[in-house]
Please model this.
Amino acid sequence: MENGSKKWNFQGNKGLNASTISVRGVYKMLMQSINNNENKKPMVGLCRVDPTVNSLFQTTLVAPHAVANAVESLNFNGYPPAAGLPDAKRAIAEYLSSDLPYKLSPDNVFLTVGGTQAIDIILPVLARPGANILLPRPGYPQYESRANCCLLEVRYFDLLPEREWEVDLDSLEALADENTVAMVLINPSNPCGNVFTYQHLKKVAETARKLGIFVISDEVYAHIAFGSNPFVPMGVFSSIVPVITIGSLSKRWLVPGWRFGWIATCDPHGTFQKTGIMTNIISYLEITADPPTFLQAAIPQILERTNDDFHSNNLNILKETANIFYNGCKEIPCLRCPHKPEGSMVAMVEINFSQLEGIIDDVDFCTKLAREESVILLPGVTVGLKNWVRISLVVDSSELEEGLSRIKAFSLRHAKMPKNNVTLEDLGMVEVC
Model:
């Protein structure tokens, strides 16, 4: 060091930088490509899943009115209990119990600052030396990021696109050992857009029980199902295997910026209590942030007074958008969507690089697409599946159609020229003006 001083004993965590991939970080990178775009086309954002950017998606007035009532009462300006306000916990327990074969107690519910904080609480609770956790591929990158921060080993099991993104149960069993503590399942799926069937979820539960692990069921998109498969919470199978459910107000009520979520233990046999998991969750809540007290106070009104028509209308919009996307995707030669999205607010699409010239991978595809067409997609590598892209469906239908049109133009511009003097027009790969 300068002036002969002692060498500093600290430095940044290089492992954290190398292992952390975020949607926000990739979005920022792609936005920079658009800023360097000389075409100055209006941006079409199909990357981030924020329903509030679509004017068709507005939360029910029940929600802001409930928050206003709580604030104006002046009764909720202090610190809440670490696990949450009793009335909010009771309301969430009743809300979740309506889909279960048994009743949850308010003691089974813990309030969090969104679904992300729920992940940030659960994974450190499991991070004993040598432990590992099984994550889906593709999946949500926050799980890997948090696991790396708390030195919890990650092992990936595959979701199978040719089988409507079902879990590859054989690979799941092959990955587990005596140090495996849990598996994560996201249903309805972000990023795949599928909804798991009752029969498949039961098989997952039976496999987890066989392996001696529990299931972390990420149900942030609970009930956002608009296809042939109804949403079934994993807690239905908690008599087979203990389940920790992660939920959130963000997506179903269209308020992602409110950052309100919960952890629910679905465990009728009391396994979490016997193994100390429940005690550890409660201890962790004592040293972490709480959702705003007034927002907690608004939860009973929001859950109990929201009209079913609000939810059904949003599902109808998503179903129509999914149809537009799926049909439009068929018209783009280099893209393949293996399964029409039936839930959540996203879809996964495979890129066929054999039809493209000068594009090496999904990041290159998305970067050049942003620069040339001002369309932003999420590279599949962000969610663990290289050479795919994730597309958000929470955009206006006209904007989605415009985005698909630009992606098609981009793919034709970069199409690999066929041999033997056959033209693109001969192959039907040009648009008729």
